[in-house]
Design goal:
Elements lengths: L1 E5 L7 E4 L1 E2 L6 E10 L2 H8 L8 E2 L3 E9 L11 E4 L9 H4 L22 E3 L2 E5 L9 E5 L3 E3 L6 H21 L7 E5 L3 H13 L3 E6 L2 H10 L3 E4 L5 H9 L3 E6 L4 H10 E9 L13 H7 L2 E4 L7 H13 L9 E6 L3 H7 L7 E6 L3
Parallel strand pairs: 5-9, 12-13, 12-15, 13-14, 15-16, 16-17, 18-19
Antiparallel strand pairs: 1-2, 1-5, 3-8, 4-6, 4-10, 4-19, 6-7, 7-11, 8-9
Length: about 375
Amino acid sequence: MKAALVREIGAGFVTEEVQLAAPIGREVLIDVKASGLCHTDLTASRNNIGYEPPMVLGHEVAGIVAAVGPDATEFVVGDHVVGCLVQSCGHCEACLTGRTFQCEHPEETLRHAGEAPRIRAGDEAITQAFGLGGFAQQALIHENQLVKVSDEIPFPQAALLGCGVVTGAGAVINTANTQAGDAVVIIGAGGVGLNAINGAIVAGASKIIAVDVADDKLEKARRFGATHTVNSTKTDAVAEVMRITGRGADAAFDFVGIPAVTASGLEMVRPGGGLYLIGILDPAATMPLLTIGLIGTQKRIQGVYMGSTTPKHDIPLYADLYLQGRFNLDDLMSREIALDGVEEGYGLLKDPTVTRVVITSGLS
């Protein structure tokens, strides 16, 4: 089969022939039908974040079950499934208490030392990043990283559920526990930020304020349901949020990750409110804090991983909401590309009018 490989960090993606092993244990073989391009994969292709090349990236993957391992119990051939990079063992304390995103033994979703690798190119072992490796015609994935979805949801939209959707919507619904009537600020109206707007609508937020530097992104945010938009290059965003809310937002969600932006997000929050950190532009970025200020205002700052998502609960929920017309996935789709166009696809994402790019052809 064909896969888009990263052979050297920073050298981009090249399409090559690779071989997949037969499924063992609880592994599931899927025919990939759609695979989204996420910036996390681009980061992994350009920086050493723990995955050694040659490797197959791609963690927003949807497809059809083609075969199952002898110990797999959740899926049968023909099921439509979505992959998620939340790797969970299912039996540690975190998993048993509903915090699969904090699993203590994510390595249990992978093959063990001494077992043949899942992916090879001839005699060369290929790293399967995040346990998924969706930039390929097929993928061999542990059943704990797969979720069954309705056959009615189109594969490109389904693929986005596994990362961008659960991260954005989950930060609002799960991590912040947004309530009906709350005022929220979405800082950064890219793909994940738009999903946060989706989540805020589902949660019943009364004021959904989108902040960005690009008017075209803010226009799209309004189409998704933002009640207010602020261009921070033209307006003092903190002052405008205070004007709109009267006292500050109940929650602000930073999808940008620039220290100055993060600091402004904390200023936008009311006493007792929360700032939630999701975006990372600079992994080495820091922000000074006046401790007494946090004590006096009782504001909280929390990092968010994957929207505090329980994939096997949340992904089917968002899929059902989409089919009911209550969760906008269609307008996330900007471009569809072929498997051999991954490098060019990431170039498309530099255009602020492009929200998401998904591989949908060259997969069979």
